[in-house]
């Protein structure tokens, strides 16, 4: 990750530019003006990773400008990162400076934190990790009050847990989420909470069923499941599936069936192109789907999956790439119209933005 251009004084102007860009992209579809959900100006990012740069026998946290891997930007703190990360950075640096077991061939440090205050640090090495590292890491984890993961080629040693626990409030209910080390999580917790509440409101109270594609660790699944009769959710990542299953159990959400299939595979199953063993025991025809929720990767939905969503009365779509969102809407525009639109500023001081639309059948 490259260092963003951190300038709180310019934040509102940048947010207005994003809003105008989204309006322009969705103008061909007569979309309403987007609801805009801003970000905290600093300490909003819950995860960060740093390369370690060595100068004069000392290691520093380093980041690099886009396209330049040779000129480090040395850091003592990182104002866009959570206060928890900023508290941990100097304490971790002091620890590795005092311990060769921790510092020898250490090349990267990754932080994962939560709004709820949990923390996990991953340390990456160009060497095998032995009992001396484990003893030092155990002491460090205790001193910092975090879990710690050591990684080297063919090794992954866990001190404590390999996940953090987040708590997010949606419509008056607090949901608990396990967020695994190395798996995708929303980086901006405050904005993620706003996204969840917007999606919860946009879906509304329903008496039918929901299909969810790309469900990840169940970030949206948990609150949306309380709005419908039952949910069929899909995800291809094994670590995300395991986290989602744990999150469903931890929150006593019992109306969700989760299958490890890609969106493309589920499309084939619903179109009866071919059967899948992972769907054994699941009667797809028993579902009365009224809505589909999608949160695809940056490439958006492939044409077949996009065509699948056309079957539903309501398409609730969260996107991390407004260009592919617009391309998908273009495919659906003849049958569905955009009735709600939102901009979620997950990534301040960058050109990236998260957006959401509700499409309803004409």
From TrEMBL:
Q: What class of enzyme is it?
A: transferase
List the InterPro entries hit by this protein, alphabetically: MeTrfase_TrmA_AS, MeTrfase_TrmA_CS, SAM-dependent_MTases_sf, TrmA_MeTrfase, U5_MeTrfase_fam
Which GO MF terms are attached to this record?
Answer: rRNA binding; tRNA (uracil(54)-C5)-methyltransferase activity, S-adenosyl methionine-dependent; tRNA binding
The Gene Ontology CC terms held by the record are: cytosol
Q: Which residues form the active site?
A: 320 (nucleophile), 320, 354 (proton acceptor)
Task: Write out the residues that bind S-adenosyl-L-methionine.
Answer: 186, 214, 219, 235, 295
Q: Which GO terms describe its biological process?
A: tRNA methylation
Catalytic activities: uridine(54) in tRNA + S-adenosyl-L-methionine = 5-methyluridine(54) in tRNA + S-adenosyl-L-homocysteine + H(+); uridine(341) in tmRNA + S-adenosyl-L-methionine = 5-methyluridine(341) in tmRNA + S-adenosyl-L-homocysteine + H(+)
Gene3D superfamilies, per this entry?
2.40.50.1070, Vaccinia Virus protein VP39 (3.40.50.150)
Q: What family, per the record?
A: Belongs to the class I-like SAM-binding methyltransferase superfamily. RNA M5U methyltransferase family. TrmA subfamily.
What does it do? Dual-specificity methyltransferase that catalyzes the formation of 5-methyluridine at position 54 (m5U54) in all tRNAs, and that of position 341 (m5U341) in tmRNA (transfer-mRNA).
Enumerate the HAMAP family for this protein. Answer: RNA_methyltr_TrmA
Its recorded name reads tRNA/tmRNA (uracil-C(5))-methyltransferase
Read off the lineage from the record. Bacteria, Pseudomonadati, Pseudomonadota, Gammaproteobacteria, Pseudomonadales
Tell me the name of the encoding gene: trmA
